[in-house]
User: Fold this.
Amino acid sequence: MTQLMKQCDLNGDGVLNKQEFDKFLDSLQDPKFSPKEKALLYRTADNNGNGQINYEEFLEFVLQELELDKVLDKAGQPAAK
Assistant:
């Protein structure tokens, strides 16, 4: 999961901004999420409301809001057993 976060963190600052998170969502879904859906998911993932998604928030979001196996498969990561 750490590797997936690093892949999504395009600027390497250790957190995901809205643009990075949107690219992550785009990589998961076809057809793509709408802008409204992306905004809602971003607010859902940003638990502390600081405008950035840290590793803990990302992990919680992936585990709770998305199907973990689907996320890992799309990212080319082995599924957690």
Observations:
- The CA atoms of residues 4 and 76 lie 9 Å apart.
- The domain at 2-70 is CATH 1.10.238.10 (Recoverin; domain 1).
- Helices lie at 2-8, 18-26, 35-45, 55-65, 68-75.
